[in-house]
Amino acid sequence: MTTPTFEKHFSSLENFGHSLRASSFVFKPKCEEEISSLFEIARKSGLTVTARGAGKSYNDASLNGGGIVLDLSQMNRITEWDPQTGRVTGEPGVTIQQLWQQTEPDGWWPPVVSGTMFTTLGGCLAANVHGKNNFQVGPIGEHVVQFTALLPTGARVTCSPGKNADLFHSMISGLGMLGVFTSITLQMKRIHSGLLEVSARPSRDLREHLSDMLENAPSSDYIVGWVDSMVSGRGLGRGQIHAARYLDEAEDPRAKQTMLLQNQVLPPRIMGVFPKSILYLFMRPFANNLGWGLVNAAKYATSLRRHTFRQSHAAFHFLLDYVPNFERAYGRGGLIEYQSFLPKETAEDAWRELIQLSVKCGLPSYLGVTKRHRPDAFLLTHAVDGFSLAMDFKVTDGNRAKLGAMLQDFDRIVLEAGGRFYFAKNSETTRETALRFLGEETVAEFKKLKKRCDPNGLLESDLYRRVFA
Ligand SMILES: Cc1cc2nc3c(=O)[nH]c(=O)nc-3n(C[C@H](O)[C@H](O)[C@H](O)COP(=O)(O)OP(=O)(O)OC[C@H]3O[C@@H](n4cnc5c(N)ncnc54)[C@H](O)[C@@H]3O)c2cc1C
After folding, report:
1. Are 81 and 98 in contact (CB under 8 A)?
2. Which of 172, 255, 358, 377 could pair with 141 in a Cys bridge, judged by C-beta atoms 3.0 to 4.6 Å apart?
């Protein structure tokens, strides 16, 4: 057995939004054997272990205060790629960016991507991420052909929808609490152009916004909305919708060129001059209620024109990567995201309440993003037949407690409306809330599997202790 590289003795790690931190022993294994020996070290030293991909979760999912963090970013090789079938196999630290850059020139795109390309395959499976096409194709787990994982018992399991199906449906969505993915095979999506056709249109209020999504999702491949979540009176929920569709074979005569990587890059400068890498510094003075209110009003005013245009896959999917380190614009306290998933019948009223409450508390969300969803069969699923609204909140030393209390009120409203929450985003979900939306049976099933895969309780994260311990 190889001795793992003890890269750093004790270091402080953060969530994506820099609003939470925890000190841990960080190991960076390079192969499966090193993970095995790390489990051994953990067992002997009585420490718990959390896997970490790129650390892009908005909350404490990949933090483990006082324990071991298994940083898998160096296990990042694409081990097999078949451009005939579109099947790709990779180590858990392969990023979505590596994936599409490998496959797009051959005419394949990842079936589901997060809003940033810097997440890893392991992290995406553990959270079972959804894309702007969730209502059409489900979460990433539905496109996994098979995976191999190492359990803390030392056992190596291979799972697919037909083999070890219970583990397949629980390790995907299981937040790394049952085992560590070591190899993942995905089925990619055939594309016939490097461009999507995107239709942009305004919505005057929340009712119009959600009706548009409901009505137009079936004829779109992707749909996503922006909501000005700082307006609580007339025009509450005003915003903009972007719906996109793939191009057919005949629609892009330059398909071979548009799929080349040089036609998919996000430009590093604005209008060819201003470097985007420092843009977040210029956004900082606006990261307050007045400044962001003005930004949102200006954004709404410029989104009133209905239009259709063609955009590269990378530009459409990874809008949030346009401004590197945008989360740093929120200042020292960072940001958190609150994403609630509501049935289509109750979403409008519940979100009206959430937005009104946040504005009344003086803690409005600066960014609101909506998506259309459908349910899935994974154990810790967050999806519903309805919509999600992700709301970004600035955190400061002064508002942290008040924000936490307001989000507990949010949870009550969402639960009463039959909603669910996402473990990769929300930082405030309590044990009681999780029990209510998941149901006792699901939590009991998860704990039973946990006992089977991890009898000594080696795998724990700050999130696990908050929600399940
Ligand atoms: C800008 C931005 C946009 C986003 N957009 C979306 C979106 O559109 N849709 C969406 O669903 N999510 C979205 N997310 C959330 C993000 O996709 C998830 O949090 C994802 O899990 C992060 O991947 P990661 O590699 O950074 O994992 P980490 O944050 O490092 O870890 C996430 C979880 O995965 C576990 N884990 C990591 N690697 C392994 C492994 N090899 N084996 C077992 N468990 C493992 C960790 O223990 C942890 O529980 C977004 C995040 C950001 C920052």
Report:
1. no
2. 172
Ligand 1, residue 121: give the atom nearest the CA: 25
Quick one: which of 240, 221, 195 has its CA closest to 131? 221
Instruction: Give the list of residues 6+ apart from residue 467 with CB closer than 8 angstroms, or none.
Output: 423, 429, 430, 431, 434
Kindly give the interhelix angle for 400-416 and 347-360, rounded to the nearest 10 degrees.
Answer: 160
Contact 469, 443 (CB under 8 A): no
- What are 78-127's pLDDT values in tens digits? 999 999 999 999 999 999 999 999 999 999 999 999 999 999 999 999 99
Distance, first Cα to last Cα, the chain = 32
* Joined tokens for residue 64: 């483990």
DSSP string, 37-86: HHHHHHHHHT--EEEESS---SSSTT--TTSEEEEGGG---EEEEETTTT
221 DSSP assignment: S
Interval 440-461: pLDDT, tens: 999 999 999 999 999 999 999 9
Take atom 9 of ligand 1 and give the residue whose Cα is closest. Answer: 114
Note the pTM of the prediction, 2 decimals.
Answer: 0.96
Structure tokens at 87: 């099947």
Cβ pair 405, 370 in contact under 8 A: no
